[in-house]
Amino acid sequence: MAKPKLTFCCQTCGTLYPKWTGQCNGCNEWNTIVEEVNQPAAPSRFQGYAGTETVITRMADVTLNEDIRLSSGSQELDRVLGGGIIMGSAILIGGDPGIGKSTILLQTVAHLSQESKALYVTGEESPQQVTLRARRLGLPEKHLWLLADTHIDTILHHVQKEKPRILVIDSIQTMHTSLLSSAPGSVGQVRESAMQLVSYAKQTGTALFIVGHVTKEGSLAGPRVLEHMVDTVLYFEGEQDNRYRIIRAVKNRFGAVNELGIFAMTEKGLREVSHPSAIFLSRSAQEVPGSIITATKEGSRPLLVEVQALVDQSHMANPRRLSVGLETQRLSMLLAVMHRHSGIATHGLDVFLNVVGGLQIFEPAADLPVIFAVLSSFRNRPLPQDLIAFGELGLAGEIRPVPGGQERLKEAAKHGFKTAIVPQANVGKNKLEGMKVLPVQSLKEAITYFENL
Ligand code: TYD
Ligand code: MG
Fold it and tell me: Which of ligand 1's atoms lies nearest the C-alpha of 236?
């Protein structure tokens, strides 16, 4: 086979180079130039009439094949996948090293291998290590096939011969193709390898799982470059030292995004947590300043989580605004609104924020609890333990309603919360037993409640 021509291409502006350089002349960006295989353009493609391979169809005439969804054996994983695994789809699972990617995939393929032929390709562990883990977890292993290889061309050769229905690649960072001369794990290799795997999966209707590592620095060769190539992107959230692992769908062509699946890491592998609403509630017995519970709704279920704030004298020229589990930008914005509309000045003070349990909250419903937590730490006054709050804060100091108010309130009432401070429109007509629901329309009103709690 003739060696294909290589080019180097800037990932930002598309300028081509015959060899690698550090900075692109086109856009002046650094480290954006990546090795690529120079595919010869298909002959006669845009050169006039190209034959009759494609047809124009009226939408009304399109017939749909009922998507076949296989159950992964775990309701929580099925939920994030949008109801199960679709044949021919490519699913990327990203997350920090050691978070449980190999474990969940091994459990899933072992379950699937009872019905369909499944191949687990491991580039990181030996077949012995994988088998040891599977035996320890007590997984059905009889029809599970293993391959320890990192060379994409060899892997595809095996796969074409064996034709598995489910294919797992663990991990894409270890794979390489001989078309490129760069090292495994580089952007060029990761992308080229994934491209070949995905096109194989699409052509043959094989369900493909790809494991990708993300490093803390957001890594150059991380799975981010793969996100538009695949149908579904799942990310592991949560800290490694925490028992609970959260899988979030960040992209899904076959289901809702931001759906969460919640698992507990046990000595027997990942176990699903089917009633997760209160797993993050492990507060100290005493009331402490700077802590409040909120009912968040990431995905389709309400979850009760603790938001903590610490406001302290700053010794820096630029006081710090740090937040874990919430956007730091949003925190800065909320502090600005608090200052402008209620005169609460936090400049000169460090403000730290934390969502307990490693959950990431992206919805603005966390605004009101953040304000209460910050106020509580600022004034050094604890909030009652049976209080919850949720609501979005606008730049004009108004409190706006959030979706799913009733579900959040019901969940909180179920777990014994007695008072809720919520946006006016979220109060609802039906009274909840044992719960006093206080409506707020503005930041001023919220602060008045705080003073009188
Ligand atoms: P692993 O799936 O190997 O992580 P990844 O593939 O994402 O790098 O998970 C490794 C972690 O999970 C390790 O810290 C140990 C823990 N673990 C358990 O606690 N119990 C188990 O049964 C298994 C298999 C792993
Ligand atoms: Mg692994």
Answer: 7
Block residue for tokens 């939408």: 59
From the CA of 101, which ligand is nearest? 1
pTM: 0.81
Q: What is the mean pLDDT of the chain?
A: 88
DSSP string, 88-142: T-EEEEEE-TTSSHHHHHHHHHHHHTTTS-EEEEESSS-HHHHHHHHHHTT---T
Question: Could you tell me the distance, in angstroms and rounded to a whole number, from the CA of residue 237 to the centre of ligand 1?
Answer: 14
**Distance, CA of 293 to CA of 280 (rounded, Å):** 10
* DSSP code of residue 174: G
Residue 242 near ligand 1, beta carbon < 6 Å = no
Which distant-in-sequence residues (6+ apart) come within 8 Å of 185 by Cβ? 173, 174, 221
> 210 has which bridge partners?
92, 169
Tell me what pLDDT residue 141 has: 86
| Neighbour-count burial for 392-411, b at 16+ CB within 10 Å, e otherwise | bbeeebbbbebebbeebbbb
Tell me which residue has its CA closest to atom 8 in ligand 1: 98
Q: Give the residues across from 85 on adjacent strands.
A: 70
